C-alpha cells in the first residue's frame, strides 16, 4: 500500500474543491488529494442555477438571513450552525469573486442580487442562471494553481477503512484500469453530494447516488434527518430538469389548468403583478410542492403522458429580461420541451431535488467518527432543518467546505502517522475480495440492476413522497427489505476491468438501497409533520416530541438504531411559519 | 405500435478486441428521447456491458460527448427523432484514444489546461474584506462567452489541426486563457503569453472554424484564437518598434 495523503477528500464538486484549497492554504506541509468518480468539472454542482445567498446590502442583516433560514427550515435547523453560516457566507462569495467567478453585476459594477423563495430581502448573488456552473468551474480552475492538490479523477471509493474507531483511508477502484487500491489518510472529508437518484423523478444528475452517505453509514457514522427530502416545485416533466426558482424571483407565476394563480389558496399571500418577498411564488419550496399535490386532488392540474402538471408563466416578463437573467431556462425549454417561454407556458411539476439530511457533523464538519469529516449536501450540519431555502446550498458548500478543510488539516497535522495495522490490511483484502470475486467474477446472478433500481424508485415515490403515512412507509420498508434480498443475487455480465460501468452501477445501487432504508425508517418514526416531512396521519408539528434531530446508526450486526438529540436553539424559539401575511 | 429505430453503436473492449466493432440494437423511438436515452435503454434492458459517460442529462456537465452520425454531439442534447427513420451511428469522439466502447481518454486536455493558467491572476491577492472588484456589465460581457465552456471536448474532436498535431493546445484551452485575459479583474495576460505564443499555441490554428461550429454552448474558440493572434501580433510589433518604457 503506497498511496497515502494527510487529507483525502472524496468528491470533487464545490464542497470538495473548496475544502482542498482550504487545506493547502491552511498548512503548507500537508499533502492533500481529491478522489472523485468523475472529473471535478463534471460534478453536480454544475447544475445549480439560481444563485447563492449572502448578506451584502445595507438594508439587510445577518439576523434576517438567519431568521429566514430557520423559519424556512421549520425550526429544525441547528441555530449555532446557521449563525456561523450567515456570518461567513458573504466572505466566501467575495472570495469566489476574487477568484474570478463571473457574478452578474449592477450597472455601477457592484455584485447584483435577486430575490429568492423564503427570503425576506434581496440577497441572492447570481451568475445569470448558471450560478453553479460558474461557481464550480471557478473553483476547479482556481484549484489548478495549487500543484499540491493531487487528484484521482475517475476513481470510485467503495469503502472507508476504519482502524480502532478512527478513519484510516479508503478503498477505491480506478475506472480506467480497474485496479483496486487502498488510499490511506489521516483525515477523510466526504463531499459526495446527495442521492436524488433514489427517486424516479429528480433534478439530480445520474451520479447522485448517495455514495458518501452509504460509506459513512456503513462505517458506523450516524446519518441525520434523513426523512427530509426536498421536492423542488418546478421540474420539467419526463426529464426532471430543473427550472430555477429564479424564474419566479424574476416575476414568473404558477398557474393551474384554469390559468389561476392557485398558491393564493394555500396561505401563501395574495397575488400581485410583481414579485413580493416571502409571498406566493416566492414562498418556500416545501409549501409550494405540497400545494401542487392539493391542486391535483382538486382536479385543477393538467394531465399529460408524464402525469399531472401545472404551468409556469414567464410570458409577461420581457424577452430582454429572460435573455439577460434566465438564458439557461430558455435554452432548456427549447431543447427539452420544444417551447419558447417568451411566448409559451412551461409545464412543470414537483421533482426530488435535495436532501436536507446527511452525514451528521458539527459546525467544523467533523462527524462522530474520528478523522471523518463531511461538507456540502452529503452532510447535515444542519443549516437546512426540515426544508432548505433556495440559494442556501451553494454558500453552504463553500462555508462548510472551507471549515471542514481547515478542521481536517488541523486534525491531520496533530495526528500521528498511522501504521497500517493488520486489522486494516484485512479490511482491504476483504474489500478486494468482495469486488473481485463476489462482483466481477460473479456467476448465476439473476436480478437485473435496472429492475431493482426501478422498483426502489417507485417504492420511494409511492411510500416516501411529498405526503407519507404510517402505512405507506411500512409498506415501503417491506419492499426495500425484499429489494435488499434480491440485490444479493444481482446479475453482472461485464467481466472487463476497463471502465466497467456495470460494476459501478451495482455498487451505487447498493449504497442507494441502504440510504433509502434510512429515509423510510426515520420517516416512519417521526410521527409529526414538519417542513418537507408531511405525515397525513400526523398532520401537525409536534415540538413536544420532535423538536429533535433524528440520528440513525447502523450497528455492527446491521440493525438500525435511531436517537433524538434536541435541536440546538440559540436565539429563535420555535414559532409559526408565516408567508404572504 | 411503438415506432422503433436502429442504433449502431461502436464497441471496443481492449482486453478481447483487436479493433472496434459495431453492434446494432433496435430500440423504441419515443418523441422525447435523446440519443443518450437510447443508450440508457440499451444498457438497462439489452446489454449491460455497454460503457459510456453521462451525468447531468441537461447539457451542462460536458460528460456525454460522442460522435453521432459523423458529427461530435452532446448525446443528452441530441434527439433520436431528428434522425428518424435511422439508423443512427454512435461512435466515440474522434481525435482521442479510445479507452473502451464510447469512452475516450481526455487526459491530454486535462494536462494542457493548467498550462494556460485558467485562473484569475492579480499582482497582489487582496483579502475578501476589501469587497468585490468592481466590474461593469459591459466589462463582464467582454469575456462572458468564453466563460461558458463546459470542457465537453467536441471542439477537439472537430479540430483538423488537433487531429494532425496532438501538441496543439487546442480550442477550449485557448478560449479559457482568453476568458481570463479579457476579464477586467485579471492582470495575468503577460504570464499566459508564453504558452499561447508557442508554436503549438495560437499560431498552429489554421482558422478552419470547425470548433466554433460544433460548440454546444456557442463559445467561439475560433474567434478567441483570431482575436488573440491580433493581440500577440500587436504586442510583438510594439516590442520591435517602441522603446521599452512606452510598451
TrEMBL record, chain A:
Main location: membrane
Binding positions (substrate): 232, 244, 353
Topology in the lipid bilayer: Peripheral membrane protein
Binding site residues for FAD: 11-16, 36-51, 211, 377, 388, 393-394
This enzyme's EC code(s): 1.3.5.1
Compartment list: Cell membrane
PANTHER family named in the record: FUMARATE REDUCTASE FLAVOPROTEIN SUBUNIT, SUCCINATE DEHYDROGENASE 2 FLAVOPROTEIN SUBUNIT
Quaternary structure (record): Part of an enzyme complex containing four subunits: a flavoprotein (FrdA), an iron-sulfur protein (FrdB), and two hydrophobic anchor proteins (FrdC and FrdD).
Similarity field: Belongs to the FAD-dependent oxidoreductase 2 family. FRD/SDH subfamily.
Protein name: Fumarate reductase flavoprotein subunit
Organism: Planotetraspora phitsanulokensis
TrEMBL record, chain B:
Gene Ontology biological process terms in this record: respiratory electron transport chain; tricarboxylic acid cycle
Domain 2Fe-2S ferredoxin-type: start-end pairs: 7-96
Catalytic activity: a menaquinone + succinate = a menaquinol + fumarate
Molecular function terms, GO-annotated: 2 iron, 2 sulfur cluster binding; 3 iron, 4 sulfur cluster binding; 4 iron, 4 sulfur cluster binding; electron transfer activity; metal ion binding; succinate dehydrogenase (quinone) activity
Pathway(s) where this gene product acts: Carbohydrate metabolism; tricarboxylic acid cycle
Family matches, as SUPFAM superfamilies: 2Fe-2S ferredoxin-like (SSF54292), alpha-helical ferredoxin (SSF46548)
UniProt keywords, alphabetically: 2Fe-2S, 3Fe-4S, 4Fe-4S, Iron, Iron-sulfur, Metal-binding, Oxidoreductase, Tricarboxylic acid cycle
Ranges of residues in domain 4Fe-4S ferredoxin-type: 139-169
The record's free-text note on cofactor binding: Binds 1 [2Fe-2S] cluster. Binds 1 [4Fe-4S] cluster.
This enzyme's EC code(s): 1.3.5.1
Necessary cofactors: [2Fe-2S] cluster; [4Fe-4S] cluster; [3Fe-4S] cluster
Family: Belongs to the succinate dehydrogenase/fumarate reductase iron-sulfur protein family.
Name of the protein in question: Fumarate reductase iron-sulfur subunit
